[in-house]
Protein 1
Amino acid sequence: MRPPEPSALPELPALPELLERPEPQEPQDPPGPRPAPASVTVERRVEWVDTDAAGHYHFSAVQRWAEAAEAELLRRLGLDGLFGRIPRVHFEADYRERLWFGDVVRTELRVVRVGGSSLHYAFEVHGPHGLAASGRMSVVHAAPRAEGTEPWPEPVRRALTGAGPQQAEVPA
């Protein structure tokens, strides 16, 4: 087989024209603020019941504080009907600083991902000397006596993914 004659080859644009072509553009997000996932901050005191024999907070207090923040967030979003329908499937925490009886603690809880039927939170607990604990908690959406999980209703999904930061709960 013989190579094609030069006149039979298609003509290519000159190199400068190739270099000047604009790059394909990614679709742009609409202007304006983007919806932010729901979050809330609550303050509590380390109570006597929250401490252990060493005098500082017991590890289980962090879970209660994270759950108290979750309950406040769901109430603020009008989603308190989810109580009894969102069992925990995962909880983890890293403990960084001791907290003592009477210390004021600030728990910040935020939605980080909403799956088909799962909801993933991240939280931080701050005390007088900064970050005391941080972690993650996951729940799933399931009817009280269901055999498995159920997808999130669209209004619930919208509230969790777009309600943004809620007003902090700070005792007077």
Protein 2
Amino acid sequence: MITAPNSGQNATNFVLKLWQQHQGAIGRALLANEADPAARQDLKQDIFLALHQAADRLKAAEMPRAYLFRIVHNVTVDHIARAQRHKWQPLDDELQQQMLDDCPSELLGEQQQSQQLMRAVRQLSAANRQVILLAMEDLDAPEIADILQISHGAVRVRLNRAKTELMELMQNGR
């Protein structure tokens, strides 16, 4: 006897599809926030678990993509807070280079630019880093505002500050 899938299965399938559609963006957010590959993998699992736990709410959300990025944001913020409490040391440049070598970029110039950008993004304040990462994933101001639970005006201000700070960091080659 064949039975119709229950709503839990439908919600899980919905989460899996969202995960597949946005795994590149999630991976880039993880790369920008965590240099250690093992910790990044743990963070990825934490995010997937949080998405699975919120599957029904995610499926019912008016803007599921924004809701997904809110979960990614919240789990990442919690991870960063835990890391700061434990005072983990950042990776040295050689380990960061090794991590960035896994980028899909095939051209050396692009790879160097990606490395410089990731170093610069990591130097941004947490608030500016989150806004710029979401903007880099083509989320618009209302979606970013919903994810971070701030006003549209605050998003625009943070984006302007983040862009200015990022340009200065990139020009200084830091």
Protein 3
Amino acid sequence: MKKDTIDELFNKLQDQLDYAEPASGHQQRFLEKLNESKGVVTLETKKKNNWLLFLSVAASLAILLTVGLSQFKTASSIEEKVAEISPEASKTQFYFANLIEEQVKELNSEKSPETEKIINDTMVQLKKLQLNYTQMEQDLLNGGNSRLILSAMITNFQTRIDLLNEVMIQIENIKSIKKANDENFTI
């Protein structure tokens, strides 16, 4: 008997070979049969409940929304409590805050390479003064000496306004010096 080469074998079996893909789940059934023959026991994985995932996401969103709203209410309630203690302080705060906001906008409109450093330093000082003011509001709510604290709050606003006015004067000086130097410069 003569041995066939592999090429001859494939040529003879060409019409008999199966090229179709196996049915879906074939690999899983094959592995199960293989494990049964070896005596291996497999544990089935539990199906994940989609509704449980949806419920956990909804609960997380509800918690985040509740925390966010409570933070928002706390911030506004400090101002409301200050207004209850001293309605004049609330009116004064509104007036000064608007005035300071207008001056800050004007200050930012004057920003140039020559004035950038002084404006940035001023903004840092304004933030520090705002933090001090917030602390004074908290002290007022905690039952401190209301006359003294209210006076300090007004002084804080006045200090901010004075700072902004002084910086605006310095910016005007910088601009006039620059203009004078530009006029005296000859080519």
Protein 4
Amino acid sequence: MKGVDFIAHRDPSAMQNATLSPIPLLQRSFELVGPIYWPLLILASPGFILAIVTELTPLLGGILQLAYGIVAPILGGAALWLVD
């Protein structure tokens, strides 16, 4: 993709004629996003677990939802900081 970016700076109309291969583009996207994927999944996992617990035991789920409501903004802020 560096070649396409280089050509686009010299000749913007070249982007209209450029072909993009989906496989290398997807590989490059995973290379960029890969390092933050697992930490973001860990930060989001309490929400997934809470949904399962709430479905199985409503009383315990309600108590955990209250606690998660307090912690969720902190986890959300950590996710935003990580992505930034």
